[in-house]
Amino acid sequence: MKKLISIAVILLLVAVIAAPADAFRGGRGNGNGPCCNGDFANVPGLNLTAEQKTKIADMRSAHLKDVKPLQDQMFSKKGDLRLLWQEKNPDQAKITAKQKEIRALRDQIQDKSTNHRWAIYKELTPEQQEALRAYGPAGRCMGGGFGPGAGDGRGPGQGRGPGAGPGSGPGPRGNY
Hints:
The protein is mainly α. 57% of the residues lie in helices and 0% in strands. Helix 2 packs antiparallel against helix 3 (92-123).
């Protein structure tokens, strides 16, 4: 009986320790659903033809190639912004200017993504368009979604620190 109680206590302790660690990961997941980056091939009920799959795959590749330089620039500028915040005497004008540059790049990426989604949408038959619209809120594939880069970027130690924009700047646990 003592052995059984000991095992139960150990399992309870493991559960108590593991639950917060699991909850810490967040609830949205990584955004790689059926429509991640315009990949419509796995949307239930869409029934794409082989020709449509090929054309959409080609469009997706071209889109990803098109936005990659913008994503790289945005990644670099976010690093620059972090460095500006870490200076001994941060310059508000430089930080504001860098944030504007990042927003401009993000807007360009979103515009290109919208154009890409619209181009794919036009390749679908009316029945497929209806199936896509029925596939959840905003068609999940056609709305803003929760894919990589979406959300406010808060994570471990990256909360809303002094003057921090989405996902940047020192958070309550320091810089990571």
